[in-house]
Specification:
With 43 residues, the chain is mostly helical. Helices cover 84% and strands 0% of the residues. InterPro entries: DUF3149.
Length: 43
Amino acid sequence: MAFWLDLMFGNPIGLLSMIVIFSTIGIMSYLSWMFIVKSAPTK
């Protein structure tokens, strides 16, 4: 576990890749939520 933490957050490239991965997950979840809300039938 310490090896992975050092690999991810120990250097700028690993930190940048973690930022990219988390922002991609956030954007995809936001787009999915927006698609679900917009495609729901209106009453």
